[in-house]
């Protein structure tokens, strides 16, 4: 019954896409295989339309610049491998923006993205409090490892290779869940039905579980995004009480974290220790090479030396190790990393394309003409903007699932807006 609802007008491509996406977080290989089949099908069926789109042609230009950057790279092999984090996802975005064009699909897609978060966080709790591990056979089948106490130790990572990937996934899921919850709540208030009560209870459970998981990731970025999301909904809905409540709680936490001499010490008796010590960075002792400011300064120096085509994708790591004698995977800022590795032109082009989609999406929202679906579309804007904000202080493209989710969100936003402009 559930999967029959996922089909729209007998569209089996959408059905297989939905099934693949549902499996993807917990069974990445199977989910990825299904998504690739859908991707190839869409390209074969709509090739002419895809290549004639100015937006898609813009991505083609960026792909060309990425290839030129790889040819000129300092470490060529790493750069060519780095293309895998971009070019397949350009193809994914181009295809899926023609698949996801209806508001009803956004609603269904939200469910597909948030339902796996429930078992993922439960596995995370088992990891943190019961030292759950994955047997070798299960690890080989599912493609991920559950490490007792998380990665790094003391921070929930669940089925992801690092806690920050779980954090951004949960931040996205939280935004979409809240959108579904609000829509169902408003619908229940207008016309109460027995079906909506269990749906609201399930969404409430997912909200609580995801929020709890987000806390145990100890990701300051994700904590801030949770505040951003709730504030955005509160402002959008005109809930002044929630605006002031979130502002008050955030002020108290920040005061306890950074202003101990002027009442912050007393607030630390109320604010949980692991929150204010994590925010103030007193929880860990960090070498200067691991500080974000050090990485960002290094990126800026690289940009100044090669501003046009950069040093090559994935070249930050070997260059940083050669200079600092310290291995570090990425510089904790996607935009600085991309500028250093591929050049300013490529970065600005990508920002222009994504920015144009978001501007059109905001205009579409402000001029909304439909009777429903507005909250769902707004939740997609919050979810994708959360992803963008997260990448100002981290880099998430190296995780297959997170990178895929981000491009699907953008494709969904673009697809719905583009379809509305043709009506």
The total count of helices amounts to 21
Please compute the radius of gyration using only Cα atoms: 22 Å
Q: What class, by secondary structure content?
A: mainly alpha
Helical coverage, percent range: over 70%
The overall pLDDT average reads 88
Strand count, sense and barrel status of the largest sheet are: none
Task: Give a written overview of the molecule.
By secondary structure, this protein is mainly α. It has one domain. It is built from 21 helices and no strands. α4 runs antiparallel to α5 and α6 crosses α21. 40% of the residues are buried. Residues 1-10 have low confidence and may be disordered.
Task: Provide a quick synopsis of the model.
This protein has 423 residues and is an all-alpha fold. It contains 21 helices and no strands. The two termini are 31 Å apart.
Topology:
Layout: H1 2-6, H2 12-23, H3 28-51, H4 54-71, H5 76-82, H6 87-99, H7 103-114, H8 117-129, H9 136-142, H10 163-190, H11 196-216, H12 220-237, H13 240-258, H14 264-267, H15 273-279, H16 292-305, H17 316-324, H18 334-342, H19 344-366, H20 374-390, H21 400-422
Question: What are the key terms here?
Answer:
72% helix, mainly alpha, globular, disordered N terminus, 423 residues
